[in-house]
Design goal:
globular; about 110 residues; transmembrane helix; 4 helices; mainly alpha
């Protein structure tokens, strides 16, 4: 038995991971002032979620959900100029997390 017990990909709640990645990445970048550090949080969560999507839904669905995740991150920037940073991050997180829940987690 290893010292770190990592969940099987099939047992991961990807909606939670997506939420952590988008909100956590943004908060990390904002509070530390180090944008690449926020990117590390975003990328790590994206990898973790994609690992589960491949295992539970296959590579095509995993690619689509990953594209949505990355697209949500990208869309949050221009959206923030229109509605503000918090509302933008919460909006894109709701869309990406909701899609992850419906397409993968509820299967």
């Amino acid at each position: 038995m290893s010292m770190i017990d990592i969940k099987k990909p099939e047992d991961v709640s990807t909606a939670s991971v997506v939420t952590l990645g988008l909100i956590g990445g943004w908060v990390t970048a904002r509070e530390t002032g180090i944008r690449p550090l926020g990117g590390v949080v975003l990328a790590a969560a994206g990898y973790w979620a994609a690992r589960s999507w491949v295992a539970t839904s296959g590579p095509v669905t995993a690619t689509a959900l990953t594209a949505l995740y990355v697209g949500a991150f990208g869309a949050s920037h221009p959206l923030a100029k229109k509605i503000g940073p918090w509302p933008a991050v919460l909006t894109v997180t709701a869309v990406a997390g909701g899609a992850a829940c419906v397409v993968s987690d509820l299967k």
